[in-house]
Amino acid sequence: MSAALAMLLAVLLDAWLGEPRRLHPLVAFGRLAAWTEVRWHADRRAAGMLAWCVVVLPLVAVAWLLGAWLGHAASWLQLLFDVVVLYLVIGLRSLGDHAMPVARALAAGDILGARTAVGRMVSRDTAALDDAQVAAAATESVLENGNDAVFGALFWFLVLGAPGAVLYRLANTLDAMWGYRTDRYERFGWAAARIDDVLNFLPARLTAMSYLLLGDAARAWRCWRVQASQWDSPNAGPVMAAGAGALGVCLGGAAPYDGVWEARPVLGEGDAPDGQSIVRALQLVRRCVALWLLVITLVGIVCWGAGHA
Q1: Maximum CA extent, the chain
Q2: Is 107 in contact with 127 (CB distance < 8 Å)?
Q3: How many CB atoms are closer than 10 A to CB 65?
């Protein structure tokens, strides 16, 4: 029950406050990671693994020790600690804060504004994107980050408590910074990419299942089964294929990076995406969060009742 309560309070706190605009711990962590990478970079997997351990494991240990100490002092202090930590590592409201300006700009026919707004969400070149491609980029980002910024952290909080949520979020951040297949990061970022793959394996499939249950289930399952393996990421593939199928839109396809259009598989089936597709993707993620909270609360009540029978 305490885990369910902490999750509910953290989600409500995120809905109320959103991400901290100043002094966000993840921003400080990003700076630490960048500083470490500049000084420790070497074209070897071992160097990347060591750098990962140096920047992640001490912070996870601090979260574990602090949580244990507070829990020993008073149960309500540990609950408060769990809520604050989980609030800081999830980004449900942030998805809407970034995606809705894209949807509003597309609805107003402001393609330049939409390109600028979606450029804050994705790494691809946005200047050459048309309306449907802008909508696809934003919709893909919402679906994928539903897992990366919300469900993955909730899953690892359930498994390992606050230290698990911290571990997941820091690993995910390092994957976003180091996990590229470029000359600089091919070996140094290998550990960050593989660890993120391992930590996301179960959450990604639970996220895909959630999208399936609360969308067009038959289409989502068909797209997941047929298309997910064609995507280059073993975890983003199921999430985005199931999400696109659940929404009944076509995502993926060619996208420009560094001035070059790269071929990508098509995900989903149905209509071309538009601004409303972004809104529907946000609604899907929010409904899935409500489903998770409901299920976890019911399981907690059953377990509590069994323990007091």
Answers
A1: 65
A2: no
A3: 11
Opening angle at CA 103, ends 251 and 151, nearest 5:
65
Q: Is the pLDDT of residue 180 over 90?
A: no
Q: String of b and e for 236-275 (b: at least 16 CB within 10 Å)?
A: bbbbbbbbbbbbbbbbbeebeeeeeeeebeebbbbeebbb
The helix/strand/coil state of 267 is strand
Element holding 308 (H helix, E strand): none
- pTM > 0.85: yes
Cβ atoms of 283 and 93 within 8 Å: the answer is no
**What digits encode the pLDDT tens for the residues 125-172?**
899 899 999 999 999 999 999 999 999 999 999 999 999 999 999 999
Q: Which residue matches tokens 């550990």? A: 191
CA 290, CA 82: separation in Å to the nearest integer? 19
In angstroms, what is the C-alpha Rg of the chain? 20
SS (H, E, C) 49-112: HHHHHHHHHHHHHHHHHHHHHHHHHCHHHHHHHHHHHHHHHCCHHHHHHHHHHHHHHHHCCCHH
Answer positive or negative: Cα dihedral of 182, 176, 131, 113: negative
